[in-house]
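Issue 218. Parser rejects a valid record. Input:
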Amino acid sequence: MDRRHFLIGGGSLMAAGGMAAAIGIRQTGSMQDYEQAAAKLHAPLAGRSDVRELIRYATLAANGHNSQAWKFRVRNSIIEILPDFSRRTVVVDPDDHHLFASLGCAAENLVIAGAATGRASELYFDPTEDGKVVVDMVAGQVDRSPLFDAIAKRQSTRADYDGRSVSLLDLRALEAAVQVDGVTMALITDRPRINLVRDLVIAGNTVQMADIDFVDELKQWIRFNPRTALEMRDGLFSGCSGNPSSPSWLGSVIFDLTFRTKSENEKYARQINGSAGIAIFVAEKNDPEHWVQAGRACQRFALQATALGLKQAYINQPTEVSKLRPDLAALAEMPGYRPNIIMRFGYGPTMPMSLRRPVDAVLMT
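Output the parser choked on:
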């Protein structure tokens, strides 16, 4: 559920590419190796897959900074999804709101994949052990929906979209997909209100860019080359945003030199201007149980968008900067509530897929 990538100026891009080539691919790794690993990770489920395969599909869900702050525990027919607080992003997400929303995203993938492999699910939130999502699966009818087919294809596409509008029929399909108890979605497609959201995103981004701790935390999660991305299998790989690979030390230097408020604000303004619409998700209560529900709703939206050939990406700055939340809630026509998640959507390119840690790394024994 993270929307960030850094944008390097054209001259810096050329310099970085030339220096990386001169240093040699041994320091940056092979993009071919990365793409092979991503393809294996995103391979479709085959037949009645086992629980480990279902968990692999659950981990393909959206999550903040690709930190993958979740753990899975299997107890007979029950799969529990627990928070992994060792992987928190404490600056951008100090109350673990995005973390619990990510658990909801993973849970929704799990329920949809279970149905497609002949398992019916009951899902509920258990407040014990710091809060966890419980998915109880039993034998049922095979129900393979378009959302299931989209799980392995969904990505947060942090790129420019082409500005085309989305048909009324597809907008209604997006609204119908987001039927999660306790969550309301505001779907914004008129340009004046999109512009108001854009202004809030830029205001939030300006606040965050002035926070040294925020920038440092973001930088810690960036993977500047395929080698590091393959070793860590988490974080924000620069190639997924269309940026060139470079040795980690060089990428760190370039980040420090080029990650600036003005260029980031210009990027977000351009990307929102080229988007077909904005979706804002608002839960009826401000607690971990309902943050999970908001995550489920946004995951369903992202999967339905993928099934329709649409791209989507998170622009969560106004939800992360608390002083901007009331204005965003008013735009969503939900005054007095906490907005949880914002996504832009539209037609755009397919970027390299992100990686996830192996199932063994997230499965509790």
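Fixed in the parser; the record now loads. The chain has a mean pLDDT of 93.
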